[in-house]
Structures are given as structure tokens and as C-alpha cells.
Write a structure and sequence with these properties.
By secondary structure, the protein is mainly alpha-helical. It has 2 helices and no strands. It has one domain. 89% of the residues lie in helices and 0% in strands.
């Protein structure tokens, strides 16, 4: 094995490792974005629930439906 072929081998291994690290970083970034999107959707859903609970008409309908008459 000549010095040139040994150098090529070392460079190709280094390139493979860098490629693997780059892909891993991209995957982690994608996961973080998906988690953030899920948290935002949850927050929006909770805000919708809070807004609905403050609605007097909804509260009255629930009282009428679930209150025992006697």
C-alpha cells in the first residue's frame, strides 16, 4: 500500500464520519422542530378549551344538561 492510497483511505473514512455526524445533526434538528410544533398545537388546543370554558352560554348549557332536577 502506497502513501497515496493510505491517505485516500484516511480521507474517505474521515468524510464518512463527517457525513454521519451531519446527518445525525439534521435528524436531531428535525426532531426538535416536530416537538416544538406539537407543543404549539397543544398550547393552542388548551387556549381553545380555556376560551370555551369562559363562554357563559356554554356554561349554562352544561349546567342545564348535567344538573339533577330533583
Amino acid at each position: 500500500m502506497t502513501w497515496l492510497s493510505l491517505l485516500r483511505l484516511v480521507l474517505s473514512v474521515a468524510e464518512g464520519l463527517l457525513s454521519l455526524l451531519r446527518e445525525r445533526r439534521l435528524i436531531e434538528a428535525g426532531e426538535a422542530q416536530a416537538i416544538a410544533a406539537g407543543l404549539e398545537a397543544s398550547r393552542d388546543a388548551l387556549e381553545d378549551v380555556r376560551r370555551a370554558r369562559r363562554d357563559p352560554a356554554l356554561r349554562q348549557r352544561l349546567r342545564e344538561r348535567w344538573t339533577r332536577d330533583g
